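User: Can you predict the 3D structure for this chain?
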Amino acid sequence: MDFGLTGKWALVCGASKGLGLGCATALAGEGVNVVIVARGAELLEKAAAELRTTSSGEIKAIAADITTAEGRAAVFAFRKDYDIVVTNAGGPPPGDFRDWQREDWIKAVDANMITPIELIKATIDGMAARGFGRIVNITSSSVKAPIEVLGLSNGARSGLTGFVAGVARSEVAAKGVTINNLLPGSFDTDRIRTTMAGAAKKAGTDIETIAEKRKQGIPARRLGTPKEFGEICAFLCSTQAAYITGQNVLADGGAYGGTY
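Assistant: Here is the predicted structure, written as structure tokens:
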């Protein structure tokens, strides 16, 4: 299926590895010109080189911290207008809310709520003027089912979800612009491996035991892959998905047990 994205320009954040790279790969495969952003220059350049081997579009790597004003300025200095924006930033660390200070909350909200809002603010009017735009925010399944030890993430990402629910249904919806949130459950990424390693150490067992227990709690009995996550993202960016906006698309292998 042709997604109708050839020649479009996409900005994909946190794209040096994991889910962000999965999204960049899928979009590049559709002939999209992709600007990938991450903090680590070496890993980012490696990702860009891999994308160039399979893409017919332009690939640009910008090593910057997208959660800072300076990082966003670097991205928009290269190009002002984007047809597709995929927001993504590493989640805050787990912990007990009793231990968190104001600075911890500000950092979490800045990275996982304010940064996506700033990127939307910078691009949405141009999208509307051109009659096409796709914004996909990579958030978390914890928006649907909060995870106790991830309170910083639960709070910040829920704030973004509320904001998107309103702006996605504003006047831009009639001008070809969609905004959706893509909620990953358990995917095979560095972040989940680090989390499982910590859980294994705490439980006095090995990471394989923890991983198998995690898989058994998922109806699909496996972890998701960045590749399939990226393909979901690419579909949400497609011309075929023009009637989907303001939604929270959960990709978790059936782990969430609710009806809605």
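The CA atoms of residues 187 and 224 lie 4 Å apart. The chain has a mean pLDDT of 94.
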